[in-house]
Specification:
Blueprint: E1 2-7, H1 12-20, E2 27-32, H2 42-51, E3 56-59, H3 68-71, H4 73-94, E4 97-103, H5 126-141, E5 145-150, E6 153-154, H6 161-171, E7 174-178, E8 182-183, E9 186-187, H7 188-200, E10 208-210, E11 217-218, H8 219-227, E12 232-236
Parallel strand pairs: 1-2, 1-3, 3-4, 4-5, 5-10, 6-9, 7-12
Antiparallel strand pairs: 8-11
Length: 254
Amino acid sequence: MKTVLVTGANGQLGLAIKAACANFPKLQFVFASKAELDVTKEEEIAAFFENNQLDYCINAAAYTNVDKAEEEPQAAYLLNETAPRLLAEVCKKHKVFLAQISTDYVFDGTKGAPYTTDDTPNPINVYGTSKLAGEKAIAVVGGDYCIVRTSWLYSEHGTNFQTKILAKAKTASYLEVVSDLFGTPTYTPNLVVFLLNKITKSAFASNMEHFSDGKTMSWYELAKKIVGNSAKVNKVESKSLKLKARRGVNTALK
């Protein structure tokens, strides 16, 4: 039986893995929240790995607030670059396979077609830049790893676009959602199945994977899909929201 450490266990991805773990009886899970393992502290990580026999580590801990990252670049880099580097180092030492979750925001969104793993990243905001720095840090450390880029995660788990939109729909007479930014929204449980199947079958064949649900749509279209007929959704342009972080027009992943 393979033992899988899941960091950031109380975040959206961590909670989705918890909800699905019973469907993967060949895997044993160790879930670690920030209180149980602060992935930005080298000593804590070292001690945790010494005290647990692990085969895989899914790093689901990340700084994901795209706009707030513009104001808190140090905090973003600490979780998105330093933590992956520290985890990569200890995983290499203990021969643990690291699955690092990254983002479509490492791209600038100007390609005009879905991005492949062969495309050159060019992030245009602090969040994307910090996530790319984490990718590069892991590659420098080496060892056994795969960076899995995904796009626009949403689900009933934790705090994310779906939970926020549904909460607003209960009280607002209408919703205003951006219609001129595009990506490939990914239902988080689908990413979980992808990751855990790969681990079960020892099937990570390269150091870089892209995973999404594959259909390109706008935030507006995603909101319509989520709320159905329960709320009216109006289109707005991204410039009208005066977002602090720049976004790529189309960061869809192939």
